[in-house]
Amino acid sequence: MNLPNKLTISRFFLTVAFMAVIFSEVRFHQTLALVLFVAASLTDYFDGMIARRDKLVTNFGILMDPLVDKIMICSAFIAFVGLHKIPAWMAVVIVARELAITGLRLLAASKQVMLAADVGGKAKTISQIVAIISILVMMSYGQWGEWGKAIFEFHVINGPWAVWFTQLAKWVAVILTFFSGVAYLWRNRQLYLQDL
Predict the structure, then answer these.
(1) Which among 4, 61, 67, 77 counts the fewest CB atoms within 10 Å?
(2) How many domains does the chain have?
(3) Against a cut of 0.90, is the pTM above it?
(4) Per-residue pLDDT at 195 exceeds 80
(5) Alpha-carbon distance 78 to 60, whole Å?
């Protein structure tokens, strides 16, 4: 098994650990959840970079890399609903989009068509990761002592900057998720319209 595929598998296990920790009662569990999610996000960046650079692209990686990404992202947003950090409808938009695109890619694969990620999809993923990390920082910075409060409770525009930044990040993630999904489905509509 090559390094990019090992990183993909490690991201799955980091996601499982993240989910276990975020709902646990261990000391500093919010901070530990943040560390685990950041580590999982970094494996997402490095596995793709290494696979392209070293020409280690495999069928396993083509299939599993986006699937594990979706598991990581959807798990975090579903967890946030349970923790009352986002409204359920936001998670529904994100999960529905990811399932729809996965279904489209499976349909395309059954017709020997490879659908690559586009710029909108990459921007969507970045916005989702930023939103998740922002929420996790908001959950955990109180555990970091006075320096955490000094940095994240610094007032800008009539309130702590971290609060409004997190709210903005959530909305940007949901909006980009929705519109990038609609655009992707529209652009590849011939794949499913011919089967209707």
Answers:
(1) 67
(2) 1
(3) yes
(4) no
(5) 26
